[in-house]
């Protein structure tokens, strides 16, 4: 397995720039997830690395071998890259064993031991070797596709939204099996996804692309706790964003005086909290208040939306069965620090309207200011 280094990669289709100066490094044996909204250039980047397309400028280096750029253009079939597409892409006329060994030299294709080894690696029973792809579940097909990609011991494995066609339960199981197989094989891997949970749970590093530019490359915890900006924050989880005034390392906000970290200096700011940082307490004394607008019960936790007296809505994620009722007045406490970002031009100062970002995904980038409670 080799490292992958992408430097200043740029690509346009016609006059439309799709990737602009992307730098990315995946260490040998590492897994980087490329995360971003639809149309941000994820698949294009993957295709340039695979050799299915050529960059306008910049380089792609596998280990110490330049495979694209600097006047080089190693054809896709000579790059030694394994590819797992969205929906298996298995050959329907070949058995599982035939699919798994397809990329191997002819004399190794009858090696049943190797087939068993590869099926075992991806957590499949060797008894499936003689089945046809249509006799497998979607999750099993994706595992066979990974076994096929790993069979020739490639220098790099590319996975293009490999779980998107699977239902939620199967997706989780298949994700875990694929993660375990990639680690066991010591594979270097680049995973394209628009699912933040998938990126955060599987990758060592997450690269966030927006409009063809890399906006952040961080380990999952840093990405979640210290996102580069509020759009990244909304893309990787639910956000509570408040107008605030930062002074002496604290932010004065509608939820009280908060400890802060982050890039904003003194003055007007927007501060980020995660819904799990909000706790509900009795509305007694000078504690900030809210009125319960809605409660969504998920079993493992619940989402409670709270209208604030001065305007705005915030969301709390609560564990346990002791939930408030809609319309109830509650006190709100914040645990941990908020991340402060410079206020957008013309943004309100202290105690301005809260801005609420929804769950990750397409909806996450939508923000709305809500009406004050009466
Ligand atoms: N061959 C092409 N010719 C012209 N435009 C293209 C071509 N391939 C991609 N694009 C455009 O480039 C942009 C990025 O596309 P790309 O498929 O890389 O995005 P993506 O992040 O993978 O999106 P999705 O998550 O929806 O698959 C899109 O606006 C797309 O329409």
From TrEMBL:
PROSITE patterns: ABC_TRANSPORTER_1, ABC_TRANSPORTER_2. GO terms for cellular component: ATP-binding cassette (ABC) transporter complex. Residues 4-236 form the ABC transporter domain. Keywords: ATP-binding, Cell inner membrane, Cell membrane, Hydrolase, Ion transport, Iron, Iron transport, Membrane, Nucleotide-binding, Translocase, Transport. Pfam families: ABC_tran, TOBE_2. The keyword Hydrolase applies. Its EC number is 7.6.2.9. SUPFAM superfamilies: MOP-like, P-loop containing nucleoside triphosphate hydrolases. It is an enzyme of class 7 (translocase). InterPro entries: AAA+_ATPase, ABC_SmlMolc_Importer, ABC_transporter-like_ATP-bd, ABC_transporter-like_CS, ABC_transpr_FbpC, Mo/tungstate-bd_C_term_dom, P-loop_NTPase, Transp-assoc_OB_typ2. One of its GO terms (molecular function) is ATP hydrolysis activity. This is ABC-type quaternary amine transporter. It comes from Blastococcus saxobsidens (strain DD2).
């Amino acid at each position: 397995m080799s490292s992958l280094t992408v430097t200043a990669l740029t690509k346009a289709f016609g006059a439309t720039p799709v990737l602009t100066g992307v730098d990315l490094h995946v260490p040998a044996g590492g897994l980087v997830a490329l995360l971003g909204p639809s149309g941000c250039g994820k698949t294009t980047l993957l295709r340039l690395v695979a050799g299915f397309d050529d960059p306008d400028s910049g380089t792609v280096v596998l280990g110490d071998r330049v495979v694209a750029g600097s006047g080089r253009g190693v054809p896709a079939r000579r790059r030694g890259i394994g590819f797992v597409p969205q929906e298996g892409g298995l050959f329907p006329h070949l058995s599982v064993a035939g699919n798994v060994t397809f990329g191997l030299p002819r004399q190794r294709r009858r090696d049943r031991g190797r087939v068993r080894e590869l099926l075992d690696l991806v957590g499949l029973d060797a008894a499936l070797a003689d089945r046809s792809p249509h006799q497998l579940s979607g999750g099993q097909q994706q595992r066979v596709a990974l076994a096929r990609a790993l069979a020739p011991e490639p220098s790099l494995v590319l996975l293009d939204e490999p779980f998107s066609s699977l239902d939620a339960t199967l997706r989780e199981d298949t994700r875990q099996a694929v993660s375990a197989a990639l680690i066991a094989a010591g594979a270097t891997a680049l995973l394209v996804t628009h699912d933040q949970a998938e990126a955060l749970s599987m990758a060592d590093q997450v690269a966030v692309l927006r409009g063809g530019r890399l906006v952040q490359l961080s380990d999952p915890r840093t990405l979640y706790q210290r996102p580069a900006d509020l759009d990244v924050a909304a893309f990787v989880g639910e956000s509570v964003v408040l107008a605030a005034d930062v002074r002496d390392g604290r932010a004065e906000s509608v939820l009280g005086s908060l400890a802060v970290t982050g890039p904003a200096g003194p003055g007007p700011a927007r501060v980020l909290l995660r819904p799990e940082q909000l706790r509900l307490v009795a509305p007694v004394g000078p504690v900030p208040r809210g009125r319960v607008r809605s409660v969504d019960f998920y079993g493992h936790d619940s989402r409670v939306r709270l209208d604030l007296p001065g305007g705005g809505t915030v969301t709390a994620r609560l564990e346990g069965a002791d939930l408030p009722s809609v319309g109830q007045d509650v006190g709100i406490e914040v645990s941990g620090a908020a991340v402060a970002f410079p206020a957008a031009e013309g943004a309100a100062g202290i105690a301005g309207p809260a801005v609420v970002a929804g769950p990750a995904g397409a909806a996450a980038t939508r923000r709305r200011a809500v009406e004050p409670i009466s």
